[in-house]
Amino acid sequence: MAIVVLSALLALGGDPVTEWLRYDRVAVDGGQWWRLLTANFVHLGWWHWFLNALSVALLVLLCPERVAPKVWVARLLVIGIGMSICLHLFTQGLSYYVGLSGLLYGLFALGFGRQIAAGDRFAIACLAFLGARIVWELMIGAPASEQALIGGAVVAESHLYGAFSAAIYGLAAGSFRRPPTPAAAP
Known about the structure:
single chain
C-alpha cells in the first residue's frame, strides 16, 4: 500500500512533478534514467491514480503474501524498470508513459505464478484472465470508456512487458518453485 501513498503524494505536486518523473523517451536517451522507474508512480490524473489504487487493493486480496520489505523493493525495481526498458526498446513510437498498471500486471503475474506453484487452481483461472486481457488490449485495444476516464491512452504494451519482467524476476528468484511439503510425522 506504500506505493499508493507514494503515488498520491506525487500527484499532489501536479503537472510539474508528473512531467519531471514520467517516462520521456528523449529525456531517457539524454541520460535521465530515473524515469524508467519513476514513471510507474505518476499518473494522468486522479481517476487514473484511483483505478491503480483499486488494483493494488485487489492485488493484496488476490495475492496475499508476507515477504520482507527488501523483497518488495527488489520486485518493484526489477519489474518496474524492466517494463520501462522494454517499452523503450520495443515500443519505439511511444514518447511518454505514466502509471502503475504495467508494474501491477507484473505483480499480479508473479503472485498468481507463485500460487499456481503452490497448487492453487483458482490462480490458474486468474492468470489466464490476465493473459487474455493483455492479448485483448494488444489486438483490440482498451475500451474507449476506460481511456476517457483516465484521460489518455492505455499503453497495453506496458502490461505485456510488466508480466514478462515479472516472469524473468520469478524465474531468477526461484519464485515459481513448488514449496516443500511438510514431512509426515512418524
